[in-house]
Amino acid sequence: MEIVASLKHVRVTPRKAMLVADLVRGKDINDAFDILKFCSRRKTAGYFTNLLKSAVANAAVKKTIDVDTLFVKKLEVGKGTTLKRFRPRSMGRATRINKKTSHIFISLMER
């Protein structure tokens, strides 16, 4: 049985989030928590930790799955909406600043 959780509109670029996602994909739950705990990209690792905790809580609610035997089956990071901001420049001009967001999807499965 597959357990899913998602996190949308995260203020991290998908490229940076993919670096952390590659570290965790395919690992056991306890190993994934350890990796995220000592990950150097703290902000992104914090989002992934909260999402992983949410997915484990979803599994605990079902009560048909042993939480200790879960592993990260699929971890996808997609492109979210882009926030468009403007910064003033010289001679009355303005430059657009794109602030990118991510959508993160996780699915856990029993070994």
Q: Please state the CA-atom Rg, rounded to the nearest Å.
A: 17 Å
Shape: elongated
Biggest sheet: strands, sense, closure?
3 strands, antiparallel
Helix/sheet category? alpha+beta
Count of individual domains = 1
CATH superfamily: Ribosomal protein L22/L17
> Looking across the biggest beta sheet, what order are the strands in?
1-3-2
Q: Give the CATH architecture.
A: Alpha-Beta Complex
Helix count equals 3
Determine the strand fraction and express it as a percent band. Answer: 35-45%
Number of strands: 3
- CATH topology value: Ribosomal Protein L22, Chain A
Text of the CATH class: Alpha Beta
Question: Could you characterize what this model shows?
Answer:
- With 111 residues, the chain is α+β, with helices and mostly antiparallel strands.
- It has a single domain, classed as Ribosomal Protein L22, Chain A, CATH 3.90.470.10.
- It contains three helices and three strands.
- A hairpin with a 5-residue loop joins strand 2 and strand 3.
- The relative contact order is 0.29.
- The mean pLDDT is 92.
